Every structure is written in structure tokens, then in C-alpha cells.
Amino acid sequence: MSTKRCLDTTGFAICMLSCLLLVGCGSSRTLGRVSGRVSLDGKPCEGLTVVFACAEQRAFITAHVGQDGRYAVQMAEGYGLPLGTYEVSIRPAPPTNWDRPPSTTLIPSKYRDPKSSGLTLTVVEGENQFDIAMVNAR
């Protein structure tokens, strides 16, 4: 193989690799808007965190539950989650104000682990309303 032909082949390979990398860097993921309400025994919860985990998307995203029990997912890319199926769990929110005590809502242990919570969400384009009605085992 001549030196010129080798350089042409190498140059072509480098050009193709660069194009592939640029296409990958420039693409943005489609998000589906996700919001809902979290309740325990029919009463709105507050000061909790909803955790969404998706192995397919390599995503682990959290949403804060406000005073009225409502949450909306927001990422750096915008409102929502990348499309896919998520396992969902509920966790106590990290303290944001050390002068204020953490949430007094006791999360039933089954909802703290995505494997036992029984909560899954398949995010599609558009609006995805996902209300979480926790029930205390008695």
C-alpha cells in the first residue's frame, strides 16, 4: 500500500469519526413533562423527594415535593424526564434550612426502595401525570 493511499484512508477514517462525535454531541434528548401529587393515606405530603431511576437512560433524577404535595421534574435540559421506563421511590428531602426541622412525614419502608415500591412510570412525549398515593400498612 502506498503512503499516499494510507494517508487518504487514515484521513477518511478521522473525518468519519469526527462527524459521528459531532452528531452525538449535538443531539438533545426528548423529554416528557412529569408532574404529580404525593399523598399518604389520602393526605398531601410535603418535604419529600421523588426519585426516578432508569437504567436504560442512565438517569437518576429527583424532584422535590412542595407544601401542597405537588412536584414537577426539572433538569438542566428542561422540564421533564428523558423518555423511558423509570423505577420510582420516595425519600426524605435533604435539609435545606438547618433552622427548620426535616419533614415529619413517615415514609412507609416499602416506598423507600424502588424494587419494593411497586411504582413505575413510562415517560412518553407530552404530559405525564404521575400521582403517588402511599398507604400505611396497618
Layout of helices and strands, plus pairs?
Layout: H1 3-26, E1 31-40, E2 43-44, E3 48-54, E4 59-64, E5 70-72, E6 74-75, E7 78-79, E8 81-82, E9 84-92, H2 114-117, E10 120-123, E11 126-129, E12 132-134
Structure at a glance:
By secondary structure, the chain is an alpha+beta fold. It has helices at residues 3-26, 114-117; strands at residues 31-40, 43-44, 48-54, 59-64, 70-72, 74-75, 78-79, 81-82, 84-92, 120-123, 126-129, 132-134. The chain is globular and about 40 Å long.
Under CATH, the topology can be stated as Immunoglobulin-like
- Can you tell me the residue ranges where pLDDT is under 50 for at least 5 consecutive residues? 3-8, 11-27
Helical stretch tally: 2
Share of helix, binned: 10-25%
- Name of the CATH superfamily: Immunoglobulins
**Would you tell me the overall average pLDDT?**
81
The computed structural class is alpha+beta
Please describe the biggest sheet, giving its number of strands, its sense, and whether it closes into a barrel. 6 strands, mixed
CATH class membership:
Mainly Beta
Strand content range: 35-45%
Instruction: Examine the secondary-structure arrangement and name the CATH architecture.
Output: Sandwich
